Amino acid sequence: MQEPTLFVLADRRLNEVVQQIRDDQWSLPIPEWIRLASTTDRSTLTLRDLVAYHAYDDVWVPDILAGSTMAEVGPDRWKAADLLGDDPKADFARIVEAAVAAAESLAPDDLQRTAHLSFGDFTVQEYFWQITQFRMFRAYEFAVMIGVDPTIPIELVRGVRAQLEPHIEGWRRIGVFAPEVPVPADASEQDRLLGLSGREPRA
Predict the structure, then answer these.
(1) So what's the pLDDT on residue 125?
(2) What burial class does residue 156 get, using C-beta atoms within 10 Å of its C-beta: 0-12 exposed, 13-18 middle, 19+ buried?
(3) Cα(158)–Cα(173) distance, rounded to whole angstroms?
(4) Which of 78, 165, 182, 185 is the most exposed place for a label (fewest CB within 10 A)?
(5) Distance between CA 45 and CA 2 in Å, rounded?
(6) What's the pLDDT score for residue 75?
(7) With contact defined as beta carbons under 8 Å apart, do 143 and 149 qualify?
(8) Residues above pLDDT 90, as percent of the chain
(9) ∠ CA(14), CA(118), CA(116), 5° rounding?
């Protein structure tokens, strides 16, 4: 399955979970088992804050896929705190669909173009590797956190695993993933992927 298709599956699955957040859950604190960047202070972080961060990550997708740099767009054009207004579910869905439309508009040759990110230049294909797994794992974590079905579409599980396996030990060495978590021999494909990524299956 091509990288843009996998991204669309992951982004829409994340949106499906966000649409199930109850009004009284937006202020939930982020539990310790959800992996964050080592510099993140989770003491005051809420579910809404983390969803807003994903909105911020998604709102850049169309510009990055178009080949723009952050300097060209304006590094302060988007602010995470402002992206979710009085109707956070509708705002998040709108941002996701814009990112999805940008991904679906790509031609196969576009995967080798350059994506200009804040931490360096990568191919569009490599950019998709990063953002697809990020969304897929967050969809699972958010679902567990709010108590809804955390099942990931099997084609997405298999596609992300195929992307991760050749690179994951290198990414582990730079702190992107925690050490692998052992799972039973009869574990589902989803649980095996979670274990591979350093996450303990919780559903």
Answers:
(1) 94
(2) buried
(3) 23
(4) 185
(5) 35
(6) 74
(7) yes
(8) 79
(9) 90
